[in-house]
Each structure stands twice: as structure tokens, then as C-alpha cells.
Amino acid sequence: MSFFNIVPPFQASSGPLYVQLERILRSAILDGRLSDSDALPPERDMAEQYGVSRLTVRKALSDLQSEGLLTRRRGCGTFVSAKPRVEGNLSAFQEDLVTSGQGTHSVWLERGIDRVTPDESMTLGVAPGTQVYRFRRLRFKETRPVAIEHSVLLLSCLTTEAAVEGSIYAAMHKSGNGPVRALQRIRAVLLQGNDAHMLDVAPQSAGLFMERRGFLADGRTAEVTHAWFRGDAADLIAEVSVQEPMRPNHPGTDISFAIAV
User: Fold this and answer.
1) Cα(173)–Cα(204) distance, rounded to whole angstroms?
2) Of 213, 180, 173, which is closest to residue 93 (Cα–Cα)?
3) Which residues are paired to 137 by β-bridges?
4) I want to staple 136 with a disulfide (CB 3.0 to 4.6 A). Which of 101, 110, 182, 253 is the partner?
């Protein structure tokens, strides 16, 4: 069966075309219609079949590559990537804090409805000016501030901002719109300005920065979270296990990450 039979042309609807193309390609990969190492057609063929520009195709493929769903091989083309499987329940980032028996609590800095910034519009795939829920809080371990969290959610994911008391993901799942998968990136940073002040550390102190995107079952990005952690109170912990092969020479890999504070 040809690629365009598996992923047929779509009826353009509201929202950026590259986001709509990402959505149908992501769905075909995640539900198994496109398998690991399957080749995608050239960009010019996809642009012609889907009635979009090559720039639109390129943007969609680049975003899926950044999610680990596609890989590009110089001189060969674009291919579906082996997909890591993550064991266990998907939890909100704050639920990944390992507290070693010590108490934690949060202070809300912001909780309500706001309009997306230009960057958030691109990340969430929504029109400029779209309303979203915005949550910002300072997390403490005992009396010491250890993390600043800033989350943005689609309005469809909650009935009201008051539904979030502790876990954002728990509130999303209770509303029936919780993420089914997430993409998370963590890197070392130097804490600056107000971030350093709120975390009670000197400017230029070492920290960890986390960016996380939660995806709904239909492929939409539902949640974007940024968090800054004190470096003297955080350890990055990763667990990797190899499962039975999904296909010859392609073992399945389960990867889980947590930041311990």
C-alpha cells in the first residue's frame, strides 16, 4: 500500500496547515499505520499531494523529528523512527519530585485565563490571541524554595482553573482531557534575575531547566510546562531498560526520567 493511501490528503480546517499535517502524520505513526524505518515521500511530492507549500511540509517534518518520531538521513530521505515506550503512568512534572520523606508545598503566583504569547501560539498550534489557562507557582521543600513552574493549557482541557488544586495532570484527566504521552527536555542553566531571587540563590548559580509538552490522544499539544530548579537541590535520574524486540534488530526501550530534590 502506498504512503498516500495510508495517509490520504486532508480537508484543511482552522489552524496552521503545518500543525494539521503534523497531526495526521503523528497519528499514522502512533497507531502503527506507519512502521519503524518506513520511508516518507520527498517533500515536493507531499506538498503536491496535500496541496500545501514545501515550507509547510518541511516545518511539519522538522517538528516531528524533534519529537523523535522521524529521522532524516543525508542523501537518503526521511524515515519513521523507532519509538521509545515509557512504562508507568504519565504524571505531571511536579509529581516527579522525589522528596525523600520531606514535606513539599506550593505557592501560587498566577492561576487563571490569559491569551497565548506568539511562542505559545506556535507551540500549541493555536491562533494568535487564543485564550488558555496559565498556571505559575513556586514549589518548596520544607521552607526552602526549590522550583519555579509555569504551565499553559488549552481551555478544552479543564472546566475551570479552580479544578487544579495540586496536580495539573490529575485535574486534566478528571476532565477527560489528560495527556497520553509527553516530550520532555532537560538542560543545565545558570539561574538569572528574578528566577535566582525567587529560588533564593545568587545570580549565576547552577540550575536545571525543563521544558515539557503533553499530547492528547488525537496528537494535539495540550500542555506546555517550563520549570527552573535549584542546582544544589536537584539531581537528574534516568532509568533505561531494554524489552523484547518489537522487530528484528530493533529492541524496544523504556526510558523514564525524574528530578530528585
Assistant:
1) 38
2) 213
3) 108, 149
4) 110
> Cell for 6?
495510508
pLDDT per residue over 71-125, tens digit each? 888 888 899 985 544 444 444 444 444 444 456 778 889 999 999 999 899 888 8
Q: At which residue does the C-alpha cell 537518503 appear?
A: 76
- Taking 50 as the pLDDT cut, the residues of the chain under it are 84-101, 242-253, 255
Lookup: cell for 48: 503536491
The answer to whether 187 and 220 have CB atoms below 8 angstroms apart is no
Of 26, 1, 10, 4, give the one whose Cα is nearest residue 180: 26
Closest Cα partner for 149 from 76, 206, 73, 212?
212
**Residues 21-53 as b or e (16 or more Cβ within 10 Å = b):** bbbebbebbbeeebeeeeebbebeebbeebebe
DSSP assignments along 66-107, one per residue: HTTSEEEETTTEEEEPPPP---S----GGGG-B-TT--EEEE
C-alpha cell at 256: 523514564
Judged on CB neighbours under 10 Å (0-12, 13-18, 19+), 153 is buried
Q: What is the CA radius of gyration of the chain?
A: 20
Separation of alpha carbons 95 and 247, rounded Å: 33
Do the Cβ atoms of 51 and 21 come closer than 8 Å? Answer: no
How far is the C-alpha of 153 from the C-alpha of 213, rounded, in Å?
10
Per residue in 194-216, pLDDT tens? 999 999 999 999 999 999 888 88
